[in-house]
Design goal:
- By secondary structure, this protein is α+β, with helices and mostly antiparallel strands.
- Strands 4-5-6-9-8-7 form a six-stranded antiparallel sheet. Strands 1-2 form a two-stranded antiparallel ribbon. Strands 3-10 form a two-stranded parallel ribbon.
- The protein is elongated, with a radius of gyration of 22 Å.
- It starts with 12 loop residues before the first helix and ends in a 7-residue tail after the last strand.
Length: 245
């Protein structure tokens, strides 16, 4: 892959390298999984310092465009995942639309008495239970979301019989219990990843995520409270809005 560098430009060379690689990706000249040339190669070919090349690669890595593999080099990552959060959507359907294969791995699933925080979020009485499930959600074998879901057990009594393998939770709710969430709320904020989250999402120290809290209602009662840790380097959320004037 050739890079066009204008040595007389007011734009720093490392920025030019970043823009050139992005352009080659957009044009399809380099694709997901392709390996970039080494720092030494670019340095010698374009008569620039390795530090300049390194700065360009660091930017590309922070933006989630490349992935550095120790001892092997830098590789082009899959494109950013854009999700519209203006309306309720299903993970499986979103991944399919994006051309990715959805999958999930359940880490734990059980009926339990909720802690005080969950009880308050879901407006539960002292004697009420929740069905809690923690899982990793994948897109084409890449871990994307670490998620814990709490369901009001009185609405899903017996759901444990259907929780195995790679499931489509909302299909289970609709087909087995006749439940279709009617409306809800979501909150988004950036977060540092814990050791556990980094382990399962295959990220490293310093990477950030997006913490998403969701409450779904069934009638006037809370059906679901979910906390999702989304990889900040992979997702971009969009929201539609309209001027009502």
């Amino acid at each position: 892959m050739e890079i066009n560098i204008d040595y007389e430009s007011s734009h720093p060379i490392y920025i030019q390298i970043v823009n050139e690689i992005k352009a080659r990706i957009k044009e399809g000249e380099i694709k997901q999984g392709d390996k970039l040339k080494s720092e030494i190669y670019y340095s010698k070919k374009y008569y620039i310092s390795r530090n300049t090349v390194r700065k360009a690669l660091e930017i590309l890595e922070k933006e989630g465009i490349i992935k550095k593999v120790k001892g092997k080099g830098s590789f082009i990552r899959s494109p950013k995942i854009y999700q519209n959060r203006s309306k309720f959507s299903k993970f499986h359907d979103d991944m399919r639309i994006l051309g990715l294969t959805p999958n999930s791995k359940i880490l734990s699933a059980k009926k339990e008495i909720p802690n005080i925080n969950i009880k308050e979020k879901m407006r539960l009485k002292n004697e009420e239970y929740v069905y809690s499930m923690t899982w990793i959600r994948y897109g084409s074998e890449e871990p994307l979301i670490y998620e814990t879901i709490h369901l009001n057990y009185k609405f899903v009594n017996g759901i444990e019989k259907f929780i195995f393998g790679s499931i489509k939770l909302y299909d289970i709710l609709e087909k087995k219990f006749g439940i279709k969430p009617e409306n809800g709320k979501e909150w988004f904020y950036p977060c540092k990843l814990s050791e556990t989250e980094m382990k399962y999402l295959q990220t490293k120290t310093g990477d950030v995520g997006m913490h998403v809290e969701r409450i779904m209602f069934y009638g006037k009662e809370v059906l679901e409270y979910t906390e999702s840790i989304v990889r900040g380097d992979r997702f971009i959320y969009t929201i539609d809005f309209y001027n009502e004037e």
